[in-house]
Design brief:
Blueprint: E1 2-3, H1 7-18, E2 23-29, E3 39-44, H2 48-56, E4 74-77, H3 79-88, H4 93-100
Antiparallel strand pairs: 1-2, 2-3, 3-4
Protein name: YneQ
């Protein structure tokens, strides 16, 4: 279940994807399959080849892309992988901001 999303953040994420950029969106998230994980980062791009190449650089498999018909295909980053990748990308404040709330 997703929550804590701001409409403006979601819209900005979609706009970046529409421009062919790699876009990041972190929000609160709870799923019984992943105990202890309270956030997820969605990394999307409308250019699936570019997204797959980005993922490859972080040891993510192309088949892990959540392919959506609406054009907002993305990887879901959770747990340690989320933190490590956001740190590599210089975006760790995305999680830190939520942890401080």
């Amino acid at each position: 279940m997703a929550f804590g999303l701001k409409r403006k953040d979601l819209q900005a994420w979609k706009e970046k994807i529409d421009r062919g950029e790699i876009a990041f969106l972190t929000h609160y998230w709870v799923d019984d399959r992943f105990p202890g994980c309270t956030t997820v980062t969605k990394v999307g791009c409308d250019d699936l080849e570019r997204l797959a190449q980005w993922g490859k650089g972080h040891k993510l498999r192309p088949e892990w892309i959540h392919k959506r018909k609406d054009g907002y295909s993305h990887f879901d980053l959770i747990g340690d992988h989320q933190r490590i990748i956001l740190q590599r990308e210089g975006l760790l404040e995305m999680i830190s901001r939520l942890e401080k709330s």
